[in-house]
Write a sequence for this structure.
DNA sequence: CAGCATCCTTATTGATACTG
DNA sequence: CAGTATCAATAAGGATGCTG
């Protein structure tokens, strides 16, 4: 049951190549039309933008407001429930910045040293059986 | 540059089918051997456990301590840097619980109602050109 | 304008067998 | 015990064209 708390599920909900960027846009700009999102995220395709938005909508993170008119107009925005993600995103963002600096000091050049503890055991049985 | 802050990158680091579970185990149990993790996560294969651990290690989130002995013994634990993820995980966990309840009230049965705003425009041009 | 349908490519995950 | 290597299956993402 609680093999890993809710943590895994949240990652699944937030995961997806473009979801973070979409949420970021909506947080910054409030309400945006489909085409505005496309302009803001030039590399995403229409298909992906649609599917990622639909998933976010399914989880009640973004709101989809359809204007019945020609030409069509659809506006997206964070729902109230989606806005409750703010502390999560803030925490991730803060950690991300610290992490980046930290990694630079580590991976600036090389791998982190392997920590090898040579106990060269005599308390443990060498039991590699031959075939 | 800052199209989406650090948010996307953090998701990439934390993303992976088993990483959350692994981190959770290490947070709860402190130090664990490879085989202990396997027992705790019965569905993960050795290959996946290895690769996910290696990725976490690369980002200095988990520590790998090798005992040079026969039979081999390797212990994993959260690094100090990895422990700094605690606020992030807590935030996600809290949100996850609230989210779960929230979703039950929504998706208990049906899709959320489409919010359709019928403005039936007259301020916008109907410009669907015929072929 | 805001999609959906189809087909295709790449990435992630998994099964299985072998090794120091 | 703690892996690696190889191959197979699945899932995620992308290109392109069509539609109301």
């Amino acid at each position: 049951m609680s093999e890993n708390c809710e943590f895994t599920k949240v990652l699944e909900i937030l995961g997806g190549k473009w979801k973070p960027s979409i949420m970021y846009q909506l947080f910054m700009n409030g309400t945006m039309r489909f085409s505005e999102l496309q302009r803001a995220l030039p590399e995403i395709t229409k298909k992906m933008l649609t599917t990622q938005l639909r998933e976010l909508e399914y989880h009640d993170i973004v709101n989809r407001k359809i204007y019945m008119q020609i030409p069509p107009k659809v506006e997206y925005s964070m729902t109230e429930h989606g806005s409750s993600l703010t502390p999560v995103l803030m925490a991730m963002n803060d950690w991300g910045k610290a992490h980046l600096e930290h990694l630079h000091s580590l991976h600036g050049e090389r791998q982190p040293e392997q920590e090898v503890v040579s106990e060269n055991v005599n308390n443990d049985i060498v039991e590699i059986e031959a075939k």
User: Anything to note?
Assistant: The two ends of chain A are 41 Å apart (CA to CA). The first strand of chain A starts at residue 32 and ends at 33. The helical segments of chain A are 7-14, 19-29, 34-40, 46-58, 80-83, 86-107.
